[in-house]
Amino acid sequence: MISQQNEQVTRPWYREPMVWLIIAIPLSSVIYGTFFFIVSITSFDGMVVDDYYKVGKQINRELKRDKAALAHGLTAQVMVEDKTVTVFILANQDYTAPPALEIRFLYSTRADIDKETFVELISPGIYKGSIPKLETGRWNVQIASDDWRLLGSMRMPDERKVVIKPLRK
Fold first, then answer.
1. pLDDT tens-place string over residues 93-115
2. Rounded to an integer, what distance in angstroms lies between the CA atom of residue 117 and that of residue 143?
3. pLDDT by residue (tens digit) across 144-169?
4. Domain boundaries, the chain
5. How far apart are CA 117 and CA 1, in angstroms?
6. At a CB cut-off of 8 Å and minimum separation 6, what does 95 contact?
7. Candidates 3.20.190.10, 2.60.40.1930, 2.40.160.20, 1.10.600.10; CATH matching 68-164
8. If DSSP states are collapsed to H, E and C, what string results for the chain?
């Protein structure tokens, strides 16, 4: 009788929960490491620009365009209605309006749905053109000519009209 009490029942190793806990920790590290390695290889993380000087010159050119809009005394009102965009431009009296303007609608988080169009001068200070439907969300609006640009933003579909003034720097 005493010999039966001292006998211990031994279980195989794979039936011990602590063994599986000890195996699970390094195994999960290997699985997560493999997953992140695959994601890092297959995803595009952008490319570092080699010629920093040219990029810096481009930034200065963009600032010159903002200053030119300020010098011309430009202010724009953009109205989006269905598939039509109308731009009203106010400027100094000595400014000659170009026959067409480039207008870009840049989505704040997804570059793949950006929209770009040209609007034609239909009467003094009024431009009109067509544009595909804008998705719901915040859009950055850029109106540009050869030597100037105006930047603003609007939220669709709540704001269908926005007034854009030149940046003061």
1. 888 889 999 999 988 788 888 88
2. 10
3. 888 888 988 899 888 888 898 887 75
4. 2-42, 68-164
5. 95
6. 72, 73, 74
7. 2.60.40.1930
8. CHHHHHCCCCCCHHHCHHHHHHHHHHHHHHHHHHHHHHHHHHCCCCCCCCCHHHHHHHHHHHHHHHHHHHHCCCEEEEEEECCEEEEEEECCCCCCCCCEEEEEEEECCCHHHCEEEEEEEEECCEEEEECCCCCCEEEEEEEECCCCEEEEEEEECCCCEEEECCCCC
Cα–Cα distances in Å, from 12 out to 8, 15, 24, 101, 124? 13, 6, 18, 79, 91
72-92, pLDDT tens digit by residue? 899 999 999 888 999 999 998
pLDDT of residue 101: 92
pTM score, two decimals?
A: 0.62
Integer angstrom CA distances of residue 109 from 14, 44, 87, 125, 139: 50, 16, 24, 32, 9
Residue keyed to tokens 């170009």 = 98
Residue 59 scores a pLDDT above 90: no
User: What is the rounded average pLDDT of the residues 41-69?
Assistant: 69
Chain centroid to Cα 132, Å, comes to 18
